[in-house]
Amino acid sequence: MSNRVVRTSEHIEVFDPAALDLIDANAPLESLASGYGWSEGPVWDRQRDCLYFTDVPGNIAWRWSEADGATKLLDPSGVARDAATGFREPGANGLAMSKDGSLLICNHGKRAIEKMNLETGHRTILARTYNNKAFNSPNDIVEADDGSLYFTDPPYGLEGLDASPLKEQNFNGVYHLQPDGRVTRLIETLTFPNGIALSPDGSTLYVSQSDPDAPILMRMSPDGSNAAVLFDASPYMSDTAPGLPDGMAVTKTGHIFTTGPGGVFVLSPEGKPLARIKTGKATANCCFGGRDGQTLYMTAHDTLMRIRTKSVGLPWS
């Protein structure tokens, strides 16, 4: 795969002119807030016109808005600090807005998938085990049209990762939580499954693998079948391009904005790299937000950033 740059600016490398239909090559990159240990899980709340994101090792979930800037939403976001023994990252990680208006939370410290009522603050555990064994540390989550939840479960929250004595699952899996509460493991062949998303029609599930020896983005059917590599980030790895495939956001046209070495890649629905947004930091995740769904918010290591695009993210239409 070629990583030839056909046009570059301060913040954007263009690999294919088709990218110019999706993002302005001269768009400015804004830093909105900083000082976090590892920022993650950005999600836009259209009802309240604000963004939620997490600092996973800091064990705090944050709310950001134009009016108020960054303010604490949950402290702690995961498990209570006096109960964090054995955890490398005890806080909440990935977030998603449920279609019922609640906030879905991947809780490292509780090793669970939660749902939070944003009006009352009440949190309900939706799932915490598979085959009567605790999850590792649920990482990222997406909701399908039928209310099904798909999530990844790497060991990043645990001290020692795969060697942690707290680890009960034999695999770092990708799971399907059905509306009736049943949990199915879809795939168990990925070393470090991380970010997860669905195509606009819900027919394709995307899962990233944050493994420096195999930094890839997979596509598969929602039942875990037909799994194949969609994008291999290996050619883009370098000492000056920190980061691995992690979180992602999908546009209504099926294009994928996925984190990777050096920032955020813009991919065609077929996985062709069209451009890279250069954040200058290892970038964990991204989401579309704003009133029109055309602003990309990015959690880049210790900083929350944004950039305007020509793309419209899901679920805007």
Automatic annotation (TrEMBL):
Gene Ontology terms for molecular function: hydrolase activity; metal ion binding
Keywords: Hydrolase, Metal-binding, Zinc
Domain of life: Bacteria
Required cofactor(s): Zn(2+)
Classification via PANTHER family: LACTONASE DRP35, LIPOPROTEIN-RELATED
Designated name of the protein: SMP-30/Gluconolactonase/LRE-like region domain-containing protein
Segment forming the signal sequence: none
Active-site residues, as the UniProt record annotates them: D246
Binding of substrate, residues: N139, D162
Cofactor remark: Binds 1 divalent metal cation per subunit.
The organism's taxonomic lineage, starting at the top: Bacteria, Pseudomonadati, Pseudomonadota, Alphaproteobacteria, Hyphomonadales
InterPro entries for this protein: 6-blade_b-propeller_TolB-like, SGL, SMP-30, SMP-30/CGR1_Lactonase
Residue intervals of the SMP-30/Gluconolactonase/LRE-like region domain: 38-301
Organism: Hyphomonas atlantica
Annotated residues for binding of a divalent metal cation: E40, N194, D246
